[in-house]
Amino acid sequence: MKVMQIVAAGYTGGGTSNVLALTEDLIDQAVDVVFCSQRDSYAMQEANRLGAELCDGLDFFRSRLDRQVVGQLRSAIDQHRPDIIHVHGGRAAFAWLRGSNRSLLQRTIYT
Length: 111
Prior knowledge:
Layout (H helix, E strand, L loop, with lengths): L1 E6 L6 H15 L3 E6 L4 H9 L2 E3 L11 H14 L3 E5 L1 H10 L2 H4 L2 E3 L1
Parallel strand pairs: 1-2, 1-4, 2-3, 4-5
Helix pairs in contact: 1-2, 3-4
């Protein structure tokens, strides 16, 4: 099984800590994890340390209406083909919903 985690900001603490803890637990259970977050963020560094595959170079903070990050998320899904997509936070969810389709929404969990 493969799970994609999407967290926009990737700052230390809060929801990022919870998603990283979930990532660690999933990896410990032999689940493949792909992690998408703000490039060069704390979350990306930690996900890398935990052994997750990274979607590097995303920029969720150019603009809420930025089409580039929408396309990058869509490409990441096409490339990694996760079984489950976990989106955490409003900014990540907004970008994800703009680029998803119904078949992907059926496999998406939002927190």
